[in-house]
Amino acid sequence: MNNIADKLFEFGFHDAEISDINCIESSVYLSFHKGLYILDNKGKEIELSDPITMRIDIDKRYMFGSIYNLIEIIEFSNQERDVDFLSFKKRINDSSFEIHMAYYSRFNNTILFDGSIKDRHIMLTIETCIDVSYHQIL
Q1: Residue 74 contacts residue 80 (beta carbons within 8 Å)
Q2: Of 131, 95, 101, which is closest to residue 113 (Cα–Cα)?
Q3: How far is CA 104 from CA 4, 15, 56, 110, in A?
């Protein structure tokens, strides 16, 4: 199996913005129109890359009919609330999702992006990840 954590953290995510999200078959695509942070050899963010898309491949065995079963979006205000995928997509197309922290857990191969849209705290979780790759947006 690929080392997802190493691939995930090829770039720095703090203060990066997800400007679009799409699901095609068993992959989640996150677009960063302002780029991701290029890291030096010590892991320090030095500059933004060109616009880039991150592709996260999901283990098809756990999709149970839909990739959306493996994507969880929770908004926190006075209480936590689930946000459906299409509503989240519309919100980040209108005003991007600013990432505060990115996490990876080997438990269920889960990636968690903790961030916000405007003043709303949101956590985006993607489960059963089997690969991560990056592609320049042309």
Answers
A1: yes
A2: 101
A3: 8, 17, 12, 6
Which residue type occupies 114? D
Are β-strands 80-82 and 97-105 bridged in parallel, bridged antiparallel, or unpaired? unpaired
CA 132/CA 58 separation, integer angstroms:
9
pLDDT tens per residue across span 30-67:
999 999 999 998 989 999 999 999 999 999 999 888 99
- 44 with 65: CB under 8 angstroms? no
For residue 26, what are its two tokens? 């068993």
Q: What number of residues does the chain have?
A: 138
What single letter denotes the amino acid at residue 63?
M
Query: What stretch of H or E contains 72?
Result: strand 71-76
